[in-house]
Amino acid sequence: MIRKTFCEGFAAGLLGLGAISASGAAELRGIHLSTSADSAQVTLDLTEGGTPKLFTLEHPDRVVIDLSQTHLASEVRAPAASGVVTDVRFGSQPEGTLRVVVQLKSALAAHSAWAPGEEGRHLVLILGEPAQAPAQLAPKTVRAVHAPGDGDRNVIIAVDAGHGGVDPGAIGHGGTREKDVTLAIARALAERINAEPGMHAVLTRDRDEFLELRDRIGRAHLARADMFISVHADSIRDRSVSGASVYVLSVHGASSEAARWLAERENAADLVAGARRDDQGVLEPVLIDAAQSGIIGVSAGAAERVVNALEGVGEMRKAQVQRAGFVVLKSRDIPSMLVETAYISNPAEERRLRSAREQARLADAIAGGVRSYFMQNPPDGTRFKQVRRTLASAAGASPAAATP
To answer: Which among 92, 121, 273, 281 is most buried, taking Cβ atoms within 10 Å?
Structure first.
C-alpha cells in the first residue's frame, strides 16, 4: 500500500513567511545532507520559489518534495548516501516542476520550513524529528557570553588540529604523523562545515605550527566560537585496538583509566614541545567551577550527536561520550569536545587515516553531528534559531495531515 501524507496548512505557512510567487522560474543551486544515526536534514539552496509540496511514499520509504516552476542548476550533484538516507535523486515533472526524492532506510517523520540564505532562500527538510507543539520546540540553550545578540549570524565552530610543528603527536608504524593527519581532517571538516548553511568554521591552525594548549582555546575565543572541536588520532601499545571515541572535560575524574592516561599525555604536550618550564599549570589537575559544569553538560549533549554520527561511518572504540581532564577543553563559555578519529597505532587504521576519502568520511560525520545538535539547540541570534522559530510556527499553524 502506498501512503501519501500531505501537510495541509504547510503552503499557507510558507506563504505567510514570504515565499515568492511561482510566476517566475526558480533554480535549485545546491543540496546539502547532514545525517545522524536516526535523523537527517536536507537543505535545498533556491534562488526563489513558489509553494513546495511535501509527501511520503512507502516500499521503499521515501520523502518527496515537488518544487513548482523550478529547474536544476547544471553543476548540482546529489549528495552521497549517509546514515538513514540511502539515496537522493532529482526528476523533472510536468509543467516545470522539479521533484527531489530522499530515500530512507525506514519511515521517518518529515517537516520543513524556509530559512533565509546569503543569496535566495533555503528550504530545510527535517527527517526523524517528530512534529511537536510550539512549547516543545523551545529547548533550553546555552549562549556563549561573548557571542553577538539578535540577527541571522552563522554558528561559528573552532576546529583544532591536534599537535603540530615540533610536536608530531603519535607516529604510526608506517611513519604517519598524527599532526599531519589531524590537519588534513581539520581542513576537510572546516570545508564541510562551511558548505552547510548557517555554519562557519575557523581553524586554530592551518599550517604545520606548534600551538600551546591555551593558545588554542584563546584563538577560539577570538573567533567568538560557539563550539570548539579538537581533532586527534592517538596511539596505544596494543596495535589491535581500533575505533573512534569522543571526549568532553571531566567533572569527577576520568571515565576510564585509558581516558585518564590519554588526557595526561595530551596535557603534557606543551612541555614535550619545549614550552616554558615555569608553566607547570598544564600538568596540574584540571579544576572545574560551577560555570564550567554547565558548559560541560552542553558539551556532552553535542558530543553524543557526534558519537551517533560517527557510528554510521565506522567502528567506535567507545559508544558513549568519554570524560577526562583535557586542558584544551577547559573553557568556561565555549562547549568543547575532543574527537579521537582512530588509532594511528593500528596498521589498518593508519592506512585509512592517510586516505583523503576516509578523512572526508570522518569530516562529514562530525559536521553532521554538530549540525544536528545546533538544529535542536540553536544559539540566539543565529540562522538555526530562525529555522527553529519557523518550524514552531508551522507546527502550531498546521492541522492534522490528511490521507487522500
So the answer is: 121
- Closest-CA residue to 111 (of 155, 56, 154): 56
Closest by CA to 318, choosing from 404, 243, 230, is 243
- Does this chain's domain 10-138+383-397 share its CATH topology with 155-376? no
Neighbours of 38 (CB within 10 A): 16
The contacts of residue 13 (CB under 8 Å, 6+ apart) are: 113, 393, 394, 397, 398
Q: Which CATH architecture has domain 10-138+383-397?
A: Sandwich (2.60)
Calpha distance 375→389 (Å, rounded): 11
Using CA of residue 92, residue 94, residue 98, residue 104, what is the dihedral sign?
negative
Global pTM exceeds 0.85: no
Task: Please tell me whether residue 12 adopts helix, strand or coil conformation.
Answer: helix
Yes or no: say if 229 and 187 are a contact pair by the CB < 8 Å rule: no
Cα–Cα dist 299/316, whole Å: 19
Q: Which region holds residue 155: left if phi is over 0, alpha if psi is between -120 and 50, else beta?
A: beta
CATH class of residue range 155-376: alpha beta
C-alpha 193: how far from its chain's center? 7
Q: What angle is formed at CA 344 by the lines to CA 338 and CA 346, rounded to 5 degrees?
A: 125
Going from the first residue of the chain to its last (404 residues), give the mean pLDDT of each consecutive group of 10, the final group possibly shorter. 38 34 68 79 79 86 90 86 88 88 90 66 74 34 43 90 92 94 96 91 94 90 94 88 90 62 66 49 46 80 92 82 86 91 94 94 94 89 83 56 30
Coil, strand or helix at 363: helix
Domain ranges of the chain: 10-138+383-397, 155-376
Maximum CA pair distance of the chain?
Answer: 75
Contacts of 393 (CB under 8 A, 6+ apart): 13, 17, 113, 134
Distance CA 302, CA 226 (A): 11
Rounded to 10 degrees, the C-alpha dihedral 12/16/20/26 comes to -60
